[in-house]
Amino acid sequence: MSLRAKLTLGTAAAASLLLLAGTATAAQPGAPGIGDPYYPNAGNGGYEVSHYDIRLNYQPASDNLSGTTTILAKATEDLTRFNLDFLLKVGSVRVNNKVAGFTQDGGELVVDPRATLRRGSHVTIVVTYSDVPSTHAVDGYTSWKRTPDGALAIDQPDIAPWWFPSNNHPTDKATFDVSVAVPTGVEVISNGTFAGTAQQINGWTRWRYRSLQPQATYLAFVAIGQFEIRQSTAPNGQPVLNAYSERLGADYSASVASIERTPEVTEYLEGHFGTYPFEAQGGVATPGIGFALENQTRSTYDAAFFRRGANTYVVAHEVAHQWFGDSVSVQGWKDIWLNEGFASYAEWLWSEHVGEGTVQENSDYVYDLYPADSPFWQVLPGDPGAPNQFHSAVYDRGAMTVHALRAAIGEEAFFELLRKWPTENRNGNVSTEEFIAFAEQLSGKQLDELFQTWLFTPGKPAVAPGAEGSFSARAATPEPKAFKKIQETRELLAGHHH
């Protein structure tokens, strides 16, 4: 789903690619989109962001959000103007300390710096704004979630335009400082390291967080309301901050029993994926979102995941995303299986670790679960299309693809791949094509047929991954102990996003 009807640049402006002195190009407006194959107007061209400083005030009673975002960027071409993705009402924009012109339309903030920004130059952009985020919708959908005691800025693929102006695409990551002032007695949770609170003279308290590693804009979040906050130290010495909404009710204890084990799950997954890529750990449990999301360093979970007791499978899924999705992010949204397939496979690894079903048993069970004529097999994980981007096939067939790769290249090469892929691509962006090339180079095997079958061919593959026998001849696998919990997790994770 596109976040916007983007501003169409006039043909005269588009035609400004004129040659100067026969070779150089004239300064021109930055593109209103990065060119993502699913959301071609997401993000913007002409600059790259290195840091966001987001300093806000939020009043839960009115849902009014106001403040200033300062953006540090670098021009990648000579720019006469540029776009930011943003929905809220802007009061002013400054570029390099000078008042800039701006217009807003359809989720685009178009900035005129009134002087050409030269390629390679550092740019400081300061945007002030004040608005009610819950009143804004795109294609009938509002990502900002107002709650009885506050709000949740949490969603995928788009949430940033509801609370800070940005270059809103995973390929432009940045570091973040987030500080939010709220009436004293209200809590604020965000990403990274908790930098403390400061009492203000107006009876408000400012909460501060710092993210030191590059972070995609959709992974930046805030949760505001009445929360119990627990702080501790992980076995690796990192700070852990977990938060539990006071509205969890009967789901409170199961939420705590799950999320407090985040450092244990992280330590286990480090054994497969290599060193945890970030500086802090934690999680947030709250009603009101309907899904879980791998917000960088601090995943957020809907209370429904814990309705039938503790659920460490969803924790394993979201913690795995810290490697697969957060540190190593998609080049384009069509590559989403690289996030969800590996995170789902991590659930199977965790199941085997806790003795509730081997990886093979889980893979076999999912393979048997969907008959050959099921619509499940018509969704292609390698290119599901925007409407099916979070379909269960992206998760489950994606995980089966990972298991088929394991069977094809052998145990030693497979577990080497699990470590090397996130390590060598840390803080980067990757495509499916790059992953296939990486797997072939590491294993020394030609894998086109495997990936074509599992990622790009409609219909049920004739042989289950890692197991012998066709689906028509092989006996069904008994349900692993873990599967009901994993399937509950899957139903909430898949198909929830807009």
TrEMBL record:
<dbReference type="InterPro" id="IPR027268">
    <property type="entry name" value="Peptidase_M4/M1_CTD_sf"/>
</dbReference>
<keyword id="KW-0862">Zinc</keyword>
<dbReference type="InterPro" id="IPR014782">
    <property type="entry name" value="Peptidase_M1_dom"/>
</dbReference>
<dbReference type="InterPro" id="IPR045357">
    <property type="entry name" value="Aminopeptidase_N-like_N"/>
</dbReference>
<dbReference type="InterPro" id="IPR042097">
    <property type="entry name" value="Aminopeptidase_N-like_N_sf"/>
</dbReference>
<feature type="domain" description="Aminopeptidase N-like N-terminal">
    <location>
        <begin position="50"/>
        <end position="219"/>
    </location>
</feature>
<protein>
    <recommendedName>
        <fullName>Aminopeptidase N</fullName>
        <ecNumber>3.4.11.2</ecNumber>
    </recommendedName>
</protein>
<keyword id="KW-0645">Protease</keyword>
<feature type="signal peptide">
    <location>
        <begin position="1"/>
        <end position="26"/>
    </location>
</feature>
<dbReference type="InterPro" id="IPR050344">
    <property type="entry name" value="Peptidase_M1_aminopeptidases"/>
</dbReference>
<keyword id="KW-0479">Metal-binding</keyword>
<keyword id="KW-0732">Signal</keyword>
<keyword id="KW-0482">Metalloprotease</keyword>
<comment type="similarity">
    <text>Belongs to the peptidase M1 family.</text>
</comment>
<dbReference type="Pfam" id="PF17900">
    <property type="entry name" value="Peptidase_M1_N"/>
</dbReference>
<keyword id="KW-0378">Hydrolase</keyword>
<feature type="domain" description="Peptidase M1 membrane alanine aminopeptidase">
    <location>
        <begin position="308"/>
        <end position="454"/>
    </location>
</feature>
<dbReference type="GO" id="GO:0004177">
    <property type="term" value="F:aminopeptidase activity"/>
</dbReference>
<keyword id="KW-0031">Aminopeptidase</keyword>
<dbReference type="Pfam" id="PF01433">
    <property type="entry name" value="Peptidase_M1"/>
</dbReference>
<dbReference type="InterPro" id="IPR001930">
    <property type="entry name" value="Peptidase_M1"/>
</dbReference>
